[in-house]
Structure formats: C-alpha cells, structure tokens
Amino acid sequence: MGEASSSILVHGFSWLYGSSEGEIELQEIMNGLTNTQMYKSPEISIALIFIMVGTGFKLSPAPSHQWSPDVYEGVRFVR
C-alpha cells in the first residue's frame, strides 16, 4: 500500500513538473498557477488529482482510518 501511494504521489508531482515547463521551486509553480491561465489546463487538474489521491492514501483520512490498520496488517512483505 505504501509503495502504491508513493508512486501515485510521485506521478502527480511529475505531471505538475511537466506542466509547469520544468520549474522545480514550489513557490514559482504557485505563482505561475495564480498569475497565469496555467491553472485551466487539464494537465494541472490531473496532477492535482494524483497528488491529492496519493496524499490521501498516505494520511488515511476518515473513514478509511478504520480499515487501513487491518490492510497494513494483512499485507505480505516480499523479501
């Protein structure tokens, strides 16, 4: 579960990086989102959805906080 949520989160950040024309500073990305029409592009929407889903899996917000300990307990570790 942790690897899947991390990969979703990284995928979202890679979409955000690609859509922001290679900018790596988050403050500059936010300035670009608020000051230009970049926020209307579908790529930004896809990136933000991936970031929110990946973060949601990591945080396990309500109501999934009830079943996530059972899921993590039942997962087999590959060695």
Automatic annotation (TrEMBL):
Write down a Pfam family by its short name: Proton_antipo_M
Which UniProt keywords are present, listed alphabetically?
Answer: NAD, Translocase
GO cellular-component term (any) = plastid
Highest taxon above the source species:
Eukaryota
Q: Which InterPro entries match?
A: ND/Mrp_TM
Could you confirm whether the keyword NAD appears in this record? yes
Residue ranges of every copy of the NADH:quinone oxidoreductase/Mrp antiporter transmembrane domain listed in the record: 2-74
Q: What is the name listed in the Swiss-Prot or TrEMBL entry for this protein? A: NADH:quinone oxidoreductase/Mrp antiporter transmembrane domain-containing protein
Q: Which organism's genome codes for this protein?
A: Gossypium lobatum
Q: What is the lineage of its organism?
A: Eukaryota, Viridiplantae, Streptophyta, Embryophyta, Tracheophyta
